């Protein structure tokens, strides 16, 4: 019976090893996905981030990049710990999994908080940002972001095209007679912003606020879904790690 029990125990350990190895490979791939989502947010959508007064949205993306990088390193460490069957390495691996889990919970909480306050923030700040900082020498990144926003989402002004009447730039000689920026035009040409007729510029109900809010909310859902998905996978990994740790004999000191 003793020999049978030992063989049964050894078989269970081997199964756990391969399960944990498979998990680590998937975990490593997932880390790449998490990091890619974070980098995409910061690089591809960085212009829109500059239009937001709060740094919460950017912070969530930075946390994802950090978590993704740690996940990929942890996946490699997990494979080493599994095949070398070292309890100390497994302990380190478990602690890293726990840290990543907490990071992703933090990113999820930040995303949820920002989700709740986004509408109010856009109402309070977007109009002022567009009218006071557009085409100002010290705010070139704002100008790029506003032009990109209006062209991509086919909108004009924060709430409506009439918002541009209060623009510092539109009121100046530098506007060269424009009523709205050229990026409001359906067919973009030099000085096309001199005409604000609906046939020439975008007249979208709700303006750019509704478009930007929808875009950010959709992206926050992606960040949240990725974080929750990876967190669930990590819980499985922590369970496997604990089982393998218990099945291995204690190392002599």
From TrEMBL:
GO BP, sorted A to Z: cell migration
Membrane topology according to the record: Multi-pass membrane protein
Residue intervals passing through the bilayer: 18-40, 60-80, 92-115, 222-245
Keyword Glycoprotein: yes
Assembly information from the UniProt record: Interacts with integrins ITGA3:ITGB1, ITGA5:ITGB1, ITGA3:ITGB1 and ITGA6:ITGB4 and with CD9 and CD181. Interacts (via the second extracellular domain) with integrin ITGAV:ITGB3. Interacts with ITGA3; this interaction modulates ITGA3 glycosylation pattern. Interacts with F11R. Interacts with RAC1 and CDC42; these interactions mediate physical association of RAC1 and CDC42 with integrin adhesion receptor complexes.
Family in the record: Belongs to the tetraspanin (TM4SF) family.
Protein name: Tetraspanin
Lineage: Eukaryota, Metazoa, Chordata, Craniata, Vertebrata
């Amino acid at each position: 019976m003793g020999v049978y029990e030992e063989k049964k125990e050894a078989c269970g350990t081997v199964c756990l090893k391969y399960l944990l190895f498979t998990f680590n490979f998937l975990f490593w791939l997932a880390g790449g996905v998490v990091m890619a989502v974070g980098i995409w947010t910061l690089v591809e959508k960085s212009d829109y981030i500059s239009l937001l007064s709060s740094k919460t949205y950017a912070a969530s993306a930075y946390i994802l990049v950090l978590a993704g990088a740690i996940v990929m390193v942890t996946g490699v460490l997990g494979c080493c710990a599994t095949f070398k069957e070292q309890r100390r390495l497994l302990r380190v691996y478990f602690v890293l999994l726990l840290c990543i889990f907490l990071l992703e919970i933090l990113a999820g909480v930040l995303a949820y908080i920002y989700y709740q306050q986004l509408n109010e923030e856009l109402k309070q700040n977007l109009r002022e940002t567009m009218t006071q900082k557009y085409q100002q020498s010290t705010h070139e990144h704002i100008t790029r972001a506003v032009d990109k926003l209006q062209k991509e989402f086919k909108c004009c002004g924060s709430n409506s095209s009439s918002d541009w009447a209060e623009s510092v730039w539109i009121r100046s000689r530098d506007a060269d007679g424009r009523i709205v920026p050229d990026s409001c035009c359906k067919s973009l040409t030099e000085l096309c912003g001199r005409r604000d007729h609906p046939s020439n510029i975008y007249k979208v109900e709700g303006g750019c606020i509704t478009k930007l809010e929808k875009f950010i909310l959709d992206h926050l859902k992606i960040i949240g879904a990725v974080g929750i998905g990876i967190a669930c996978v990590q819980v499985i990994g922590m369970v496997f790690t604990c089982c393998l740790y218990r099945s291995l004999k204690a190392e002599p000191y």
